[in-house]
Amino acid sequence: MKHIHILGISGSLRADSTNTIILKTLGSLLPSDTTFEIFEGLDEIAHFSPGLPDTEPVARLKAAIAKADAVVICTPEYAFGVPGTLKNALDWTVGTGDLNDKPVSAISASPLNSGGNNALASLLLTLTALGTKKTDACALSIPNVKGKITEGRVTDAHTLNELRIQCTNLLSLIGG
Question: Could you tell me where the beta strands, DSSP code E, fall in the chain?
């Protein structure tokens, strides 16, 4: 059986981010033959401009994507969209097709009842433009996220089940 490697990207730069906690929790739910790594350094990626060469942080991001069998992105919602740092990082992959045909799962999380639906819709639109491999089942919105995390872990049973479903969907895309 092939070893599977999944990359997580958090749209939040905060060390105690609920989005990063969600990614860590998702990683713990994956089968034992799967490795999971969260990309570090989103804040080091230069502003995208088509004429610029890749900087070291951009090259690191692209290498992490290339190494991964699939990618999970978890993002907060800022001003009804994805944070600029996340969108900027994704923009660096447009011209080189780094995410083309790569299985992805998109998750938004918000302390509001909306669950960050606008950010999720925006992220899904960007991932479609990047040619990623996904289904409708590879998207999850988590509302009222702060009440679903205790001491740095997702503890809400419904949310844990939804994260398990994301793992199953993503793994089926890798195999399919």
Answer: 4-10, 34-38, 70-75, 104-109, 139-142, 149-150, 153-154
Q: Give SS3 for 82.
A: coil
Q: How many residues does the chain have?
A: 176
Q: Are 142 and 159 in contact (CB under 8 A)?
A: yes
CA quadruple 20, 93, 163, 172: dihedral sign: negative
pLDDT in tens, 58-93: 999 999 999 999 999 999 999 999 999 999 999 999
Amino acid type, 73: I
Is 4 a residue whose pLDDT tops 70? yes
Please list, in sequence order, all residues whose beta carbon lies within 8 angstroms of the beta carbon of residue 37, skipping any fewer than 6 positions away: 5, 6, 7, 8, 64, 68
Question: Smallest Cα–Cα separation from 103: which of 160, 164, 167?
Answer: 167
Model pTM score: 0.95
